[in-house]
Amino acid sequence: MAAETNSNLLEQAKPRINAMAATALTVALVALGATVALGLVVGTGPMFRSLLIGYMMPFGLAMGSLVLLMIQWCTAGYWGYVLRSPLEAGTRTLPVWGLVFALIALGGLTIFNLRPDYHPENHHEELNVVSSEKLWPWADHELVEHLHHHEKLVVEEKLGYLNVRFFAVRAAIAFSIWIVLALLLNRVARREEAEGTSQKLRDLAMQYSGPGIVIYSITMLFISTDWSMSLQPIWYSSMFPVIFGFGQLLGALCLNALVYVMLRSGIEDLSTGRNKKLMRDLGSLILGFVVFWTYISFSQYLLIWSTNLKEEVPFFIARTNGGWEYVTAALVFGQFVIPFFVLLLRDVSRSGKWLARVAGFILVMRFIDLYWQMKPAFRPGDFNFFSLETVMDLAAGAGLFSLWLFVFLRQLVRFELLPVNDYRKATEPVHTVSDDVEVAGSHG
Amino acid sequence: MTDMATKEAKVPDKDSLFTGTYNFGTVTSKINDIVTGPTGKGWVVGFAVSFLILQVLLMAVTWLLYEGIGTWGVNVPVGWGFDIINFVWWIGIGHAGTLISAILLLFHQQWRTSINRFAEAMTLFAVACAGLYPLAHMGRPWFFYWLMPYPSTMQLWPQFRSPLIWDVFAVSTYLTVSLLFWYTGLVPDFASLRDRAKNIWARRAYGILSLGWRGAARHWHRYETSYLLLAGLSTPLVLSVHTIVSFDFAVGNVPGWHATIFPPYFVAGAVFAGFAMVVNLAIPARAAYGLKDYITDKHLDNMAKVMLASGWIVFFGYGVEAFMAYYSGSPEERDLFMKNRAFGPYGLWYWMLILCNGIIPQLFWWEYFRRSMFWLWMISFVINIGMWLERFVILMSLQRIPWQSSAWGQYSPTFWDLSTYFGTFGLFFTLFFLFLRLVPMISAFEMKHMLPESHTHAPGSGGHH
Amino acid sequence: MGAAPAKMASFGLLAEFDNPQALVDAADRARREGFVKMEGYSPFPVEGLREALGQKRTLMPVAIFFGGITGTITGFMLQTLTSGGLPAEWDAWIPFNQWFSYRLNIAGRPFFSWQAFVPPMFELTILFAAFTAVFGMLAINGYPRLNHPLFEVPEFGRASVDRFFLCIESEDKLYDNEKTREFLKNLKPLTISEVPA
């Protein structure tokens, strides 16, 4: 019987999701077309940089989905039951998204094209990382050769790790591992759908998930270093991989909460019964994630600010000058202050509508966060909102996000929107003293 | 009235304690009888031994105050020795208590109820032990108030840009809030001790401690609201405390200490060691007082899982440190890691800590090791040693090689370092035995709340005749 | 129930129950009957009792929030003023800037190092909020109060152990010693006791 209602849910939602997917595809084609057109005007170098930045957020959503999926197998909360299907759909986008990365990286390491202002006779002079002829500056040997003395020494020390071949091997290994993990977890879901839930299946999922989380953190340490941190090859921060990976979790959580509210709000009342508690739990989870993101980000800033080392502090100088200070402020307010205070008002965040608004808002901030992480590497202390380059960044971001959304939505309608045989189907979000504290007048 | 009198005679018989069937009355008596009942022999022996060890601490501190900091092994170049290692170690252990009671309350984890009181007490005593070290290290501890912001005659204020002053704020706030949290949780239980006390003096003492608690609905409502919010406040607080402890090192502009990952990695280490200590204390305590129905194997299993997860974060932190030492491209960072941490004079300790914190806890992947009391206790003990070694390695590997090689040196603890460390165990366990004897070690009112008959439904919706 | 003048000879009438559901139902009946000055007592927080008694939700969260904000501002002002965080040119107009501040150049960091002020600000936020939560809650509840008329009733000793009580206070407009006792009897309590004033 529950299966029937679930199928109804899928049948009801299918036309809407398909229509959204079609829109997403149209937006993707238009925006990516615009990116390429702008790239021909501004230059292919900036275009590949825009594409790399735009790539990161959907990549984070797919990877965050994978980790959240594994976490929900290990912690067994009710939220895991309702978010599982979208999370699984998110992980199924990984093969396509691996391909997209291969294309961007290939283009960025071959066609990529910049350093127009530097004439051959000046090549004996010092070069700036910004003028790199490759998407990742360390891959441009001529550039490394002509860096400022100290910078050159530092970058040369890293070339054993930062070289194209090793970089490609790492990316290939990482994607293979993630895709295998996604396949295994999806296979468990399909088996559960066919055979019904059993302790054996749950144990199997946990056996994949526990080590899977460990593997994720190890691979993401290298991938975040390779793809994002090494854009500023002198800079390093051991907190950065944590911030990078945790941002993926935050983004995926918000996306899936948004998907859930959008799918269900037309069908059932989100402010009563199980849903009310679920909204409360999701609101608390997002609140906790937002606070933790702030904590790790501020810790990194405080430590680098107070130590004031020349290898490290340029990262923040580049982001607090020449227009970037406004982006930084927007980030502080948008990804901490505003969501924090809205989610603190529990009555507000418990209504599905507001939860969806906050989640959607944070998703936008996720793009700005990644933009803030990467773009100043190319334009340190120089942010101009009204420039073709910024328009191209936004177009690439919108295009790649829509493309990913299209793939995601097509995957979403392939299977039930709520797992038909999940062991938590009949359970409730746990009732505790906190309900009495928060809920007024629910009795008598 | 007579009808009621017969009903009242629900004196718990010994057997029912172990069958796991309880009602409101027997939960209260089971927990309170430990406090109000006769003093056990085991307790006397345990307390006497702890008290004896406490005398070692008193002796060490007295000698320190008489003779000066020179009695310790710290000197140039190693200025932070056992005092800071043990400060960090003890305060890390304390964190599990707050985490168990606060975070698990927020996450609706019911398994916290029977261990939270116990864990919070551990927090308080561990923080007391930790606080002793920086105080003693001042040399003139009677001037400790110079660290406080107060309008002195010279108008000289603390140096607010220093992490050491942040520590003063963090640790004193932590101690205060933990004490308030613990005491707030105790008030209703003191009330039931007061009401059941036969001795007039005990009745008066518990009466004063309970502040006259009556259990009115209005009071309970405000109480629960405040208690939950206090838990909400304690959670970021406990993270901030160990974060600021990590700042003590990471703000320093020196290789091996200045790693931006330190804050979360230190916090995870604190959780790791703290849960290990809770397990080390809970297994003997529940055996001694027959509390297996309250602190069940399931609790211990969950704690082992928390140790596995936090242990992985710590292990990951070691990996990131090693990788970033290489990736930084800085010869100082690389040399420090290769020649003074992984290899070199402290290499043995480094690999020991990898073994204790990284390798051995992996046994917790298997349920057998999480459910076997012997292995669980042993692995937790190993983790405590490992986390001590971690602090030792972090502190020592760096300080012995200042920038000028002519100033390089070694550190070895003196007899007084060791006896101070040994003595703080005396302080910790003396306080702990007093706690077991004088205060209900399990929150009785919250346990009652977990009984099925405590659940109510809206009036008039059926069920009641 | 007729509006009899309140007799101050007694504090009220206390009915005893042996399970929380009975107390919630009794409180609900009493509220419907029109009683206002009444209170339920239990050894642990009982779900739904507050609503059954018709009591309002507490405003403690708001108080705690403002307690925390006070801590943040205190921390910020304390550090900014004492570090000479306000520009020296302002000394002429803001005398306390001179009185409080002690400008020390530490590692070339600005006098107004807001980044470094965040950790103590955070700690003071938590400290002040926690003080509000604990001392505010105790103060509003009227604790410490070691004596209370209810403690004169021997049965009330089990209110902290395993019994549940409903007390209708004599200050209530509808209170009448006889009629109220009759009403309570209908609720089938274990005992009914008169609480001496």
Essential attributes:
heterotrimer, A: mainly alpha, globular, disordered C terminus, B: 465 residues, Formate dehydrogenase/DMSO reductase fold, 17 helices, disordered N terminus
Order of secondary-structure elements of chain A: HHHHHHHHHHHHHHHH
The number of domains of chain A is 1
**Number of helices in the DSSP assignment of chain C:** 6
- Into which percentage range does the β-strand content of chain C fall? 5-15%
Inertia-based shape of chain C: rod-shaped
The shape of chain A, in one word, is globular
- Name the assembly state: heterotrimer
Structural class of chain C: alpha+beta
Distance between the termini of chain A: 32 Å
Number of strands of chain A: 0
Molecular structure report:
Chain A has 444 residues and is mainly alpha-helical. Chain A has one domain (9-416). Chain A is built from 16 helices and no strands. Chain A has helices at 2-42, 44-75, 78-91, 94-109, 141-145, 149-158, 164-195, 199-227, 240-264, 273-307, 314-317, 324-344, 346-350, 352-378, 388-412, 433-438. The longest helix of chain A has 41 residues, at 2-42. Chain A starts with a helix and ends in a 6-residue tail after the last helix. Chain B has helices at residues 2-8, 16-19, 24-36, 41-67, 82-106, 116-137, 163-196, 200-209, 217-250, 262-288, 297-327, 331-342, 347-359, 367-371, 373-399, 415-438, 444-450. Chain B is an all-alpha fold. Chain B is 69% helix and 0% strand. Chain B has a single domain (22-453), classed as Formate dehydrogenase/DMSO reductase fold. Chain B starts with a helix and ends in a 15-residue tail after the last helix. With 197 residues, chain C is of the alpha+beta class. Chain C is built from 6 helices and 4 strands, in the order E-H-E-H-H-H-H-E-H-E. The radius of gyration of chain C is 27 Å and the shape is rod-shaped. Chains in contact: A-B, A-C, B-C.
